[in-house]
Amino acid sequence: MSAKSDHLVISVQDHVAQLIFHRPPANHVSVELVADIADALLAFDKDPAVRATVLASEGKPFCAGADLASPTGIGGAGMGGVSELYDQAVRLFSVEKPIVAAVQGAAVGAGLGLALVADFRVAAHEARFSANFVKLGFHPGFGLTHTLPRVIGAQRADLMFLTGRRIRADEALAWGLVDELVPADELRQSAFALAAELAENAPLAVVATRKTTRSKLADAVRAATAHEHQQQTTLRATEDFAEGVAAVNERRPGQFKGR
What structural domains and CATH numbers belong to the chain? Predict the structure, then answer.
């Protein structure tokens, strides 16, 4: 079984769905892309042929996050576009069946948030992980203030949030942000193998166990995104945010004034 949309290619083999997204050149998220991913994952929940999913992308980066700098990106639509994005993000955390993310390159900002939708992350050595919001003069979003500490602990999450540091794949493995580290040419195969290992178990038991371990996760992400959006709305009006966007566009450090 296979299907294709503007952003997604979907196939199912041996009870494992592969959902591959592509928005060149940087795989920036959009409301439509996240909605399409959520629609597909929630449809898999109702399909007995699917027991686990591999979430992957084409191109050099896994996902460069939300485009806040370009007039044609989510930032160009103002905070209303961000709110719509977060509504769709909450849907991702309502999915019942397990997900394995295959991360080949940079997972930045909302791209990191998307990777954290998955239960497990298989990464290539070239993968990098960053919650670089403060470098934009912005507040973390996409539910990361809840999901990132849940995976790597509060101390390491704060280190990522407050420095905006880019974390290498080997460091991410040591922190538990990545579950398996493999050569790039083995990434999809390794992610599929892990998903197949999940899929060979009793499906009702897997779903029931996952519901217990991820109890109320969608509700927690909904609360987190509401607070994140409020803080982002305030910070978007600051001079520092304008400087941060300019600095990112010009590939230089921001010259922030605290106003």
Answer: 2-185 (3.90.226.10)
